[in-house]
Amino acid sequence: MNKYFSSYALYAAMATITVACSTQKELALPERVPVPVVPANNNDTLSLANFTQVFNDPNLRSLIDTALRNNYDLLSAAQRVATAQANLMMAKNAWLPSLNLSLSAGVDKYSDYSLNGVGNYDTNLSPNISKDQRIPGPTPEYFAGLRSSWEIDLWGKLKSQRQATYARFLASEQGRRLLTTQIVAGVTGLYYELTAMDNELAIIQRNIGLQETAVATVHIQKAGGRATELAVQQFTAQLLSTQALAFGVKQEIASLENQLNALLGRFPQPIVRTVAKDAQALPDAVQKGIPGSLLLQRPDVQQAELELAASKADVKAARAAFLPGLTITPYAGFNAFKAGLLFQSPASIAWGAVGNLTAPIFNKKQIRAQYNISTANAYTAFYGYQQALVNGYQEVASALNKVENQREAYTLKNKEVLVLQEAVSTANLLFTTGYANYLEVITAQKNVLEAELALVTTRRNVYQGMVSLYRALGGN
Asked: How does it sit in the membrane (predicted)?
């Protein structure tokens, strides 16, 4: 018997060593591509200081607070973080032994030609046992006690799984931060769209007033024989076109208000906002260059980096699955084949422990497939991280260029508006004195309206560029 046992132990040990030596090689990812950014001496707070002019509107701040409280996407993201936190709790305690209270009852009818059947028969004939020790047939089985199971983390598999879960928990936090930044940027962008539309509507209504005066003037001149019906029709047509344009802007305002209310998690209602004339100042110029630390603080970049760390830990856990596992399963309690004898201490007390060392052999293809999946996911996470850096760089660069170019365009457009406003005054004066015809007046009024609307659009683009830059830098 000892000979057979020794041979079996030798074969088991050889199989364990063979499996342990056949693990997969460690993960080797490509080199990371360096990102061209400005040196660290370009203070990150320099860029953040510009945003104080964008977010200083009290009405805007109130809307942002409402969105952060009520936005349903953000509320869902908070629940995803809670789910990740629960998964982390499970992973942190996976190395601890399980302990369960066990109450079990069963019955067995052994064959007369089985080991247990013959053994029970002989036992009952023995003069060395008492009446209570006689085994009934069929044989009941009762147990009341504690059972435990403890997986020993020999190769760090549970530790790697815990590291992967922790990284994904942090990634979920970054995902919520990313969504928060997008919501803040979305609310701010729509808010400045609304103020721009308000400004456009005010410009259109002011021009409607000027054109109504022009129509009244041309009617007087027609009555005095100084203008024709054609002039009256042209001025009237221009007035009607501008009045129709006002209704188009009102529709855009209503649509933007509905979009903003949806982002705030509420049904359509009026949006309280600053009057357009109180929001004329442009944000300060942004210094050129992309701060490296701000770029790396983008939530999508940090989320991708954490997902990469989690994928690397998954590969380590998948490698450890090729190695033998040790599980210890102890138990202690009351055990008897008669219910009345179950709690007669100490005779019915039973305890034991089993150490189970297992190594994968025939299911190795499944483990290899899981390792291949983990490796592929790690490469996917690596490429996703690299793409997040590329996306972040181009978004910041585009936003910086947009702010700079639109500021320059605003300066020129502002000069254009001043010139055209003087041209309208000149055209009206020349028309009333007979030195200009009505077409020149209409053209001058049309040009100044278009230039004023273009100036509003350019100013709006400066603010949208700042909002894009805020989002591209990851918010704060």
From this structure: Lipid-anchor
Alpha-carbon Rg for the chain in angstroms: 40
- Per-residue CA distances from 126 to 113, 116, 132, 136 (Å): 19, 15, 13, 14
> Residue 315 and residue 378: Cα distance in Å, rounded?
8
Q: Please report which helix (H) or strand (E) contains residue 238, including its range.
A: helix 229-263
The residues near 76 (Cβ < 8 Å, ≥ 6 apart) are none
Of 476, 465, 306, which is closest to residue 395 (Cα–Cα)?
465
The answer to whether residues 175 and 84 touch, using CB atoms and an 8 Å cutoff, is no
- Helix, strand, coil percent content, the chain, rounded in steps of 5: 65, 10, 25
Closest CA to 158 of 348, 40, 314, 367: 314
Domains and CATH numbers, the chain: 24-95+159-324+363-472 (1.20.1600.10), 97-152+326-358 (2.20.200.10)
AA letter at 181:
T
CA dist 82 and 359 (Å) reads 36
Coil vs helix vs strand at 458: helix
* Tokens coding 390: 């590329």
54-102 confidence digits (pLDDT tens): 888 999 999 999 999 999 999 999 999 999 999 999 998 888 899 999 9
> What single letter denotes the amino acid at residue 127?
P
Residue 98: beta bridge partners?
149
List Cα–Cα distances, 253 to 71, 167, 197, 456, in angstroms.
21, 44, 6, 15
Residue 440 CA to chain centroid, in angstroms?
Answer: 56
Whole-model pTM: value is 0.81
The dihedral through the CA atoms of 176, 178, 181, 187 has a sign that is negative
pLDDT digits (tens, 9 = 90+) for 419-451: 999 998 998 888 888 888 888 889 998 999 999
Cis peptide bond N-terminal to 140, omega within 30 = no
Sheet holding 325-336: strands in order across? 98-108, 139-152, 325-336, 349-358
